[in-house]
Specification:
The chain has 66 residues and is α+β, with helices and mostly antiparallel strands. The protein is built from two helices and three strands. The protein binds iron/sulfur cluster. The site of iron/sulfur cluster has 13 residues, from loops.
Length: 66
C-alpha cells in the first residue's frame, strides 16, 4: 500500500488552499466535523481497506494497493 499526492499540481494547490481556509477540515465538505479533519475518517478507512485503490474524496491523495 502506498499513498501519493494527485499528479495534477493545480488540484493539489487548490485543495491545500482550501484546507488552509477551513482550518484543516475537508474543503470538499460543508460541515467542520471532527471526522472531516484531514486526513478524514473516510480516507483512513479506505487506506485500511486492502481492496481499495483510488483517490480520496477531494482527490488530494491517491492510494495504491501495492
Ligand atoms: S477527502 Fe482527502 S483532502 Fe479531504 S479530508 Fe479526506 S483525505 Fe483530506
Amino acid at each position: 500500500m502506498s499513498i501519493r499526492l494527485n499528479e495534477d499540481q493545480e488540484i493539489v494547490a487548490l485543495i491545500r488552499e482550501g484546507l488552509k481556509q477551513k482550518d484543516g477540515y475537508c474543503p470538499c465538505r460543508f460541515e467542520k466535523k471532527e471526522e472531516y479533519k484531514c486526513i478524514c475518517e473516510e480516507f483512513k478507512a479506505q487506506m485500511a481497506d486492502p481492496d481499495f485503490e483510488g483517490y480520496c474524496h477531494c482527490r488530494l491523495y491517491y492510494k495504491t494497493k501495492d
